[in-house]
Amino acid sequence: MGASTGNLLVENPVALEAIFRECPVLIATHCESGPVIADNLKSFLRAMKQRFRIIR
User: Fold this and answer.
1) Is a pLDDT exceeding 60 seen at residue 47?
2) What pLDDT, on the 0 to 100 scale, is given for residue 39?
3) Is the overall model pTM greater than 0.85, yes or no?
4) Mean per-residue pLDDT for 20-41?
């Protein structure tokens, strides 16, 4: 979950399942997909480049 969490990143499905199964309290998460974020950023920058001319 969440590469934006730095060293708290947990990608192993077995570990994630154990965390959610064994935790005695409610867990709230904010999950992001790194590849989806990167693709969206590329699309956004491409759209902005077409919309606004950069003058140097």
Assistant:
1) yes
2) 92
3) no
4) 88
Do 8 and 2 form a contact (C-beta atoms < 8 A)?
A: yes
**Please, what is the Cα angle at 10 between 4 and 16, to 5 degrees?**
135
Inter-residue contact 32 to 4 (CB < 8 Å): yes
The residue to which tokens 């935790």 are assigned: 23
Q: What is the DSSP letter of 54?
A: P
Task: Determine the distance from the C-alpha atom of residue 25 to the mean position of all C-alpha atoms in its chain, rounded to a whole number.
Answer: 24
**Cα–Cα distances in Å, from 50 out to 12, 41, 54, 55, 56?**
39, 14, 10, 13, 16
Confirm if 2 and 37 have CB atoms less than 8 A apart.
Answer: no
- How many alpha carbons fall within 13 Å on the CB side of residue 33? 4
Q: Report how far residue 29's alpha carbon sits from residue 50's, in angstroms, rounded to the nearest whole number.
A: 36
